[in-house]
C-alpha cells in the first residue's frame, strides 16, 4: 500500500554505484560517464525519485519559506494577522510554514526549533503568554535568522517589532467612557506577564488621571480569576459602577452576562468597551464597542520588515507602533458634545 | 547586526580542508585525524555552528513533524480541527507544520510541495474549494508519504478519510424543521465543487421526500450568489416560506438579515437552521440552531490514523464518517411530540 520514499542510496544500490555518483548524475555534476548517467536518470524516473530541494537549499542557503509562530487561531485577531502576512509573502513568492504555541512555552521553543530545522529564511512570531525567559529567541538571532516579533514586546530581545499602541488604545476607550458620563469604571485586566495587559492598564489609569478621577483598586479585576463573575457581581452592588473597560472582547462578554443576570441595562446604566474588535462584537445584543488593533496591517507590515531583512541583512531594526481605532457600537452611550 | 548562518563550507574554508572532512569530523564519521578533528570541533563551537537535523533526517528519513494543510482559520471549525489534531500529535511527540491554501488551488499545490520539501513524516489536509484536479495529491501518495484527508472527499484519491456525515446531518436538520411545522423550506447551498455541499443538499431533499413534500427548485439558492439577499427577499414575498436550512452558519446569518429587514419574526414565522455550530451562533439573537460536525473529534481521529500509517505503512486505509449533532437553540420552534 505504502511505498517507501526513494532515496539516492536506493538508486545507487540498484545500479551498484556510489550514492555520490547518483547525486552527480542527477545534478549534472560531471564526473559521470554519459552511459551511467542515462542509466541513473532512467531508473530515478522509473522509481519516482523526487529531488530534494531541502538538500539543495543546504548549498544555496535559501528555501523561500518564512516561519510563523502564533499562539492559537481561536481568536479572530490571529487569523487577521495571518491574512495580512499572506497578503505580502504570497506576492513576494514566499511560502509560510506556521506553528502554534498554544500559549505554552515548551511548545513555543519546539516551534522555533522546528522552523530553524526547516531552514526558513526568516521568522515572524507572537510570543506566548507564559514567556519569562527568552534564550530560544536569542538563539534565533544568534543563528543569523531574521526575526520580527508582533503584538507582544519582549524587552530582552533586540529585534524588529510591530505592535499596536495599546496604551493609547486603552486611553481613548476610557477617555470616551468618561466623556459620555461614566466615572466609576471597572477594568478587567489581561494575563499578568504580557506587555499588552500592562499597557492597557496604564492607558486606563492615564485616562482617569486626565479627568481627575481617583484610581480605585476595588474596580480592577484579573481576567483569569475563576471567580471573576462573582466578584464583578459583588462590586456592582457595593459601587455605583457606570462603565466597564475590558482587556478583551471575550472578557467584556463575561461582564455582559453578569449585567444581564443582574438586570442592569447596557448602556443606560453601565457602558462597556471591549478590546480587539472580534467579529462576535457585531453579533451580540447590544453590539459591543471595541478597540480595533488593525491586525491585518500588523501582519502585512511585519512581513514587509522581515522580507527587507532577508533581502538585506544590514537593514536597520525597526519598532513600529500602530494606531488603534475605537469602534463605537451600541454598548456605549453616544458622545455628548460639551457645549461651547 | 545580522550574522550569516555558519555552514560546513565556512568551517572547511577557514581550515583549508574539504567540506566532507568537516562533515565527517562533526558526525564522528572516521577518516579524519584526531588533531584535525579537534581543530574542526573547536572552530565549529567558536563560530556557533548549528548541526542541521534536516540533513541528518535525509539519512534517518524521519523528522518527527507532521504537515497540515487547512483552507483558512477564519472559520472556527478549522481552529477546532487543529486543536483536535494537536491533542494527539503533541502527546506523540510530533511537531505540526501548518500551511494554508486560502481556498486557492495554486497555493494548495505549493503547500504540499513545501511540506514534502520539509520532509514531514505525513500530511493531514482539507482540500480547497477550487479543486478539480488532483495530480498533486497523487504525487504525495506516490512519494510514499502517508496522507489523511479531512472533511471534504476527493473521489479520485484513494487514501484515508475522516469526514462528518453531512447527508445525515442535513437530513436531521430538515426533518426537525418539518416535524416542528415547516413545509416550505428554503435551502441555501454551499460551493459547487465540494462534496459537503452536495451531501447537505441531498440530505435536505431526502427529508422532504420522507415527509412527502414536493421538492421545489424555486426554494434553492446558491450561497455565493452576489444577489442572494435580494433573491431570498423576493422568494419570501412569492412563497409561503416557513423554514430555512443553510449550508453554513454564515449563510444562515445572511438570511437572518433579510428576515429582520422584512420584519419577519424568527422562529414564529420562519425557523432557521445553520451548519457548523460556529461560536457566533450562541451570540446572535435569537440564538441559531445549527449542526455540529464535531471538528475536534475529526482532527483527533485523523491524526490518530496518520500516526498509525507513519508507524506502520501496512496499516489499511480507513474511511471514517462522524455523526453530527443537531444543536437546538432559539431560531427553531420547540419540538411538538406527535400524540400517540
Automatic annotation (TrEMBL), chains A, B:
Alphabetical list of InterPro entries matching this protein: HTH_LacI, LacI/GalR-like_sensor, Lambda_DNA-bd_dom_sf, Peripla_BP_I
Stored CDD domains: HTH_LacI, PBP1_LacI_sugar_binding-like
Alphabetized GO MF terms: DNA binding
Domain of life per record: Bacteria
UniProt keyword list: DNA-binding, Transcription, Transcription regulation
Keyword Signal: no
Positions of the HTH lacI-type domain: 6-60
Keyword DNA-binding: yes
The protein's name: LacI family DNA-binding transcriptional regulator
